[in-house]
Amino acid sequence: MPKLIISRKGFDSGTGGAPNPRLGDQLYALPIPQAGSDIFYQDLRWDEKHNFLEQMQQLGITFYSEAHLDPDLVESHLHDRLEGWKAAFGQTGAAASHLADRGVGPGDLFLFFAWFREAERNEKGVLRFRSKAPDQHIFYGYLEVGQVINLSLVDTPDWAKRHPHHVFKDRYDRQGNLLYVSAERSSYWPGMPGAGTFDYREDRVLTLTGENRSIWRLPDCLFRKGLCRLSYHEKRQGTAIRGTSGQWRRLQSVARGQEFVCDMTPRIREWVKKIK
């Protein structure tokens, strides 16, 4: 049975130290910092006029220069892509072992979420986080796996040699070094590529309205006998949310962990298809 992987990425309180900005309907997931990656925030394209570094500085994020661009979902984020570039996501260490132990492979779907806070531009066009805007976990991207490459065992394809899991290959090889390469086309959303990003929409918000960001609103299909199906959450009870006819449950998500995996049941697949 295919797997669903709900994956925590982007800046957070421990790595980066700031939320990721939501500007209107646009979600900007900030790649975490990593010195020596040779991918600079100033070279990452925010839009046609701006780069990531100048926008981060306006938000008060001033002490990073190089980025760990992973997951790497959008070709246009860098202008000097290697020939044959493909969207990809790398994992290593305990998190890679967790994915391997759960059998994650071709046909499985990553849904990436991050901590977001709404931002706005002032009268001078300067980007600022909105005062008292809520902190929310929001789905911002996806990758359907087409191939898994164990970079500890085989040579890195030429198109992936700017990916951080190749750049830091010597460091990661000791812990296991897996690269999840996107499928060409999505089998969940006809006509869509195998990887990409989402705009903001209320039904893509994980956080339950009025709660701190780690309190999630999840569909009942992600529970079995009231217990969450997601790995690291299997002993956590979901509380039915009033007024939703039992279709949604409240869950306190775990404080740590990157990838949360479950089987893609038919009901979960139907919920996933509505996210896009």
Provide structural commentary:
The protein has 276 residues and is α+β, with helices and mostly antiparallel strands. 12% of the residues lie in helices and 30% in strands. The protein has helices at residues 52-58, 93-101, 164-167, 169-172, 266-275, and strands at residues 3-8, 20-23, 26-27, 32-33, 67-68, 88-92, 109-121, 127-129, 135-150, 177-182, 195-197, 215-219, 223-224, 227-228, 239-240, 248-252, 259-263. The strands form four sheets. Strands 1, 2, 3, 6, 7, 8, 9, 10, 11 and 17 form a ten-stranded mixed sheet that branches. A three-stranded antiparallel sheet has the order 12-16-15, with no helix packed on it. It has a two-stranded antiparallel ribbon with strand order 4-5. The chain is globular.
